[in-house]
Amino acid sequence: MQTTVRAPIAFAGVGLHSGRNARLTIRPAGAEHGIWFKRTDIRLGDTMVPAIWDAVDRSPLCTRIRNAAGVEVQTIEHVMAALAGCGVHNALVEIDGPEVPILDGSAAPFVRGILSRGLRSLNAPVRALEVLEPVTVQTDNGWARLSPGQGLTMDFHISFADAAIGTQEKALNLSNGTFVRELSDSRTFCRRADVDAMRAQGLALGGTYDNAVVVEGDEVLSPGGLRHADEAVRHKMLDALGDLALAGRPIIGHYEGYKAGHAMTNLLLHALFRNPAAFRLVEVAGDARARLPGVGIQPEEIPAVA
């Protein structure tokens, strides 16, 4: 059945790009509600922003959603990944600012909060989006593809000049809590040169060595080093799950990303929904539930570093 969180879960911190403090609360919601954000700092007008693919205002550095009134919330990808990876289908996410707190740069704090409160089943079946034929988007920088699969599986490939990252690739089946165990604690990352460039554009104002992995050449500048030798590609997969969650339903299919990012994954969803023959909605019941992320996960499975 569809799920929601059992009780409100509050988080507070600074936005990675805006540098502004924000308080975020994930609240229970009813069946078929989906995921919505509500700007509690705005008193008049439409303050509800849907977490859905066609509300995305594309950005290469984060995922930003905006409603018809121009109200927006940015850097939603980590909390969206946590909700999807924990199997939460419905929630109201209240936030008193324009950007989701970055916390430690990963999705693990959100995961820990969600699993510590627990989930509540709702009186409605889960309907998943099953991919029926391949859909691909490509740019000069890379490509992304969705194709048929037995559950949600993912392959990702990245390549950076800095030896501290270099070329990395990873393949995972995201059923049965794999996201929580393998990806949730992997942090956002960047090159030291990128930090200076972003700040010159008024971005990354809330970034620190405590909420991002910063590299320069073959050196990891963040204290404590990496949580995983391939933390960078794991984080890219985390981001991809959060961005795919904007399909509005769990996906049954295989995602491949080659140097893909937020904007490209959103382009992929646009391409998918433009082709009605490429997907169908299916009711997920019985043993098929185990193919979805988050089913059966327990709090003790969260990586200790989180």
TrEMBL record:
Alphabetical GO CC annotations of the entry are: membrane
Q: What is its EC number?
A: 3.5.1.108
Give one GO biological process term: lipid A biosynthetic process
- Per its UniProt record, what Pfam families does this chain match? LpxC
Q: Which gene encodes it?
A: lpxC
> What are the UniProt keywords, alphabetically?
Hydrolase, Lipid A biosynthesis, Lipid biosynthesis, Lipid metabolism, Metal-binding, Zinc
NCBIfam families of this UniProt entry?
Answer: lpxC
- At the top level of its lineage, which domain of life is listed? Bacteria
Recorded protein name is UDP-3-O-acyl-N-acetylglucosamine deacetylase
Q: Which family does it belong to?
A: Belongs to the LpxC family.
Biological role stated in the UniProt entry? Catalyzes the hydrolysis of UDP-3-O-myristoyl-N-acetylglucosamine to form UDP-3-O-myristoylglucosamine and acetate, the committed step in lipid A biosynthesis.
Where is Zn(2+) bound in this sequence? H78, H235, D239
Recall the GO molecular function terms of this protein's record.
metal ion binding; UDP-3-O-acyl-N-acetylglucosamine deacetylase activity
Q: Pathway involvement?
A: Glycolipid biosynthesis; lipid IV(A) biosynthesis; lipid IV(A) from (3R)-3-hydroxytetradecanoyl-[acyl-carrier-protein] and UDP-N-acetyl-alpha-D-glucosamine: step 2/6
Q: Which residues form the active site?
A: H262 (proton donor)
PANTHER family, alphabetized: UDP-3-O-ACYL-N-ACETYLGLUCOSAMINE DEACETYLASE 1, MITOCHONDRIAL-RELATED
**Keyword Cytoplasm carried by entry:** no
Catalytic reactions on record = a UDP-3-O-[(3R)-3-hydroxyacyl]-N-acetyl-alpha-D-glucosamine + H2O = a UDP-3-O-[(3R)-3-hydroxyacyl]-alpha-D-glucosamine + acetate
